[in-house]
Amino acid sequence: MSNLERDPQEAPCGGLADVATEPVNELLIGRDVVLGGTRGMKVTRTLPNRDIRMVGAWCFVDHYGPEKATMRVPPHPHTGLQTVSWLLAGEVTHRDSVGSEQVVRPGQLNLMTAGRGISHSEHSPAAVELHGVQLWVALPAAARGIAPAFEHHPSLPVLTSPGVRVTVIMGELGGATSPATVHTPLVGAEVVLDAGAEVVLPLRPGFEYAALALSGSVRVDGTDLAPGPLLYLGSGRSELSLAAGPGGRVLLLGGEPFEEEIVMWWNFVGRSHEEIVRFRREWMAGSAFGAAPGTDDPFGVVPGTDDPALPAPELPTTPLKARGRHR
Fold first, then answer.
1. Mean pLDDT, residues 35-55 taken together
2. Where are the domains of the chain?
3. What CATH number should be reported for the domain whose range is 27-255?
4. Lowest CB count within 10 Å: 77, 94, 107, 239, which one?
């Protein structure tokens, strides 16, 4: 799933200004976004947030379901980021302009690296129960111009203790390393706790962290967390305690604070308003809308779908420059 808002706002992100250099417990309330019109699927978006834009290189978090719904996201573009698709229920078929076609199911990872430009679509079977998260990772300057790529990881490393199962989706945690490609030091992990279970996770003091409850209820560092808000945990931690009452599932995100300043708009990550303008122009003038394929078309065409490509919204009238996060 991607950003289908018809009036997206530019979001300046990144930089080290006001990154919490000590442990904190800040609940960040998300906003409801309906994808695909008034009858579309509702998601709760907690990043970017008005109080904090990023957690490490993680710059976008949508949590959806559980609900019976049909995901039908037509071909659309991305630049300068990785999309991380993680399901708890249902299945989604990914297709992209580099020729990938892959169904992702619960416990599997679909990872798309946009680099200098890619387009893709996402479809689910009609009216299945869907529950999952869609995440974006901002690419650093050294990687944002690389060729687009796609990875599917049907199995991932798992850490276990009594009543606890931790799947390392991205990066490294507790000595277990995901096979997924990363371009900055980060971690993404799903923690499942049975009723009454407790666990202490090892953390890196130089990372900043956040936790998102996906189901049930879990006490994270003394804060009761249920689905909805994102709990920002700051940095300076060497461990994190989690305890479940009736049981629950939590997504842990972390990484080195992202030093570079970026601009996010619609499905693009760039470094300036002018760059976003160029990305939009190239998408609207590209082969997805009938132009002959050429070197100035970085996005290409998504095969295997009858859905027309998604036109980009109009740009905001006031240019914004990249600057640090707000907290």
1. 84
2. 27-255
3. 2.60.120.10
4. 239
